[in-house]
Write a structure and sequence with these properties.
Structural class: alpha/beta
Largest sheet: 7 strands, mixed
Order of helices and strands: EHEHEHEHEHEHHEHHHH
Helix content: 55-70%
Strand content: 5-15%
Number of helices: 11
Strand order of the largest sheet: 3-2-1-4-6-5-7
Shape: elongated
């Protein structure tokens, strides 16, 4: 039997949350508990939560944050509650509190989850001209980024209607993001934890042009892309050190033959690696990971050899141009391709969060 838990994070909700709750309770779900997380709502909205707690004989728990911590933090509070009190729950469904997710849409997602209980089920919307521009733009941007970084084709990266296997819930609790970036990181990390994604089409509902959304376009967008941007900045800084030293070494060696390119690559890459490791370990991935120096050194050696030989090979292909800039251009092309490969390896293998024994 598929035993489902439901989490609804709520910030200053209206009567839509009451209607959604009543619809869930009257639906034919095998429900372990419905957890509503008040993420620091103001006093004017506390009667909504009080009304929920007065529902008799209903499997409802209302949890409160003293102040607003963000949607990601609210979800993690709900995840922790299920881990502590309902560990036999098969999967946890998440919905938004503003009425954009219907019980019918939830039912379709739960049916898909019952068929694929080991997958992360996403309730995906169709984006037409009736969808607010900021929602269309944000989804397209994050979808492209997921495709670029994680090699996954996800049509709706910002949907709040999800059904998450309990095994993946345990992995998500230590994640650092507390706001909308948490849901994005959930998608990026799915492949790392061998969780496949299943897309279930749902109706597209936007109420009053999505004015009820608490998504802060600039701040939350930057938070969503922060890790990738920081990694890119770190890579640009170390690449600058690398390319300058590479050019200086070739200048001192006075030729651009393969052996000189390899020598210049070794010297420049060793020094730039010190910069890159320090920035990535402490600023990009927040000091996470186990035996990171050993793993990074292994990646560094492989990447250095690959960069040297691929740069030499590409430079040889264009040797007929007789230009001293050919090796530099070849190195830029090769290292740009290695950049995305390196990001995924560092994120998923070297600096990944190590789950505690309690999470298994």
């Amino acid at each position: 039997m598929t035993l489902i838990g439901i989490i609804i994070p709520a910030l200053n909700p209206d009567q839509a949350l009451i209607r959604l709750t009543q619809d869930i309770l009257t639906a034919n779900f095998t429900l372990s508990q419905l957890v509503i997380v008040d993420d620091g709502s103001d006093p004017a909205h506390q009667p909504i939560f009080a009304q929920l707690t007065r529902l008799k004989n209903a499997p409802i728990t209302v949890l409160h944050h003293a102040h607003n911590q963000g949607k990601g933090a609210a979800l993690k509070t709900g995840f922790q509650y299920f881990a502590d009190h309902f560990p036999t729950t098969t999967g946890v469904a998440t919905l938004d509190a503003d009425g954009q997710h219907t019980v019918g849409a939830l039912s379709h997602c739960l049916h898909a989850f019952a068929t694929h209980p080991d997958r992360l089920v996403l309730g995906v919307r169709r984006f037409t001209n009736n969808v607010p521009f900021r929602s269309q733009f944000g989804n397209r941007l994050t979808s492209q980024l997921v495709r670029l970084i994680a090699h996954q084709q996800i049509s709706d990266t910002q949907t709040g209607l999800r059904v998450i296997p309990m095994s993946y819930v345990h992995q998500l609790r230590p994640f650092t993001g507390d706001r909308f970036e948490f849901e994005f990181e959930m998608l990026l990390a799915a492949q790392r934890y061998h969780v496949k994604i299943f897309e279930q089409p749902i109706p597209t509902i936007y109420i009053d042009g999505n004015q009820s959304s608490h998504f802060r376009i600039i701040r939350d967008s930057l938070a969503i892309y922060a890790q990738f941007f920081n990694f890119a900045a770190s890579s640009v800084a170390s690449f600058a050190v690398d390319i300058v030293l590479f050019a200086v070494c070739l200048l001192l060696l006075r030729n651009s033959q393969l052996h000189s390119i390899l020598i210049a690559t070794v010297i420049s890459r060793c020094l730039s690696a010190v910069v890159n490791y320090g920035l990535n370990h402490h600023l990009v991935f927040n000091g996470t990971g186990h035996q990171t120096l050993v793993k990074y050194a292994t990646l560094f050696l492989i990447q250095m050899v690959a960069s040297g030989y691929l740069t030499g090979g590409l430079a040889h292909l264009f040797a007929g141009f007789q230009s001293p800039t050919i090796p530099l251009l070849a190195k830029m092309i090769v290292d740009s391709l290695l950049f995305l490969i390196s990001y995924r390896i560092q994120r998923d293998v070297i600096f990944c969060e190590v789950p505690s024994n309690a999470d298994h």
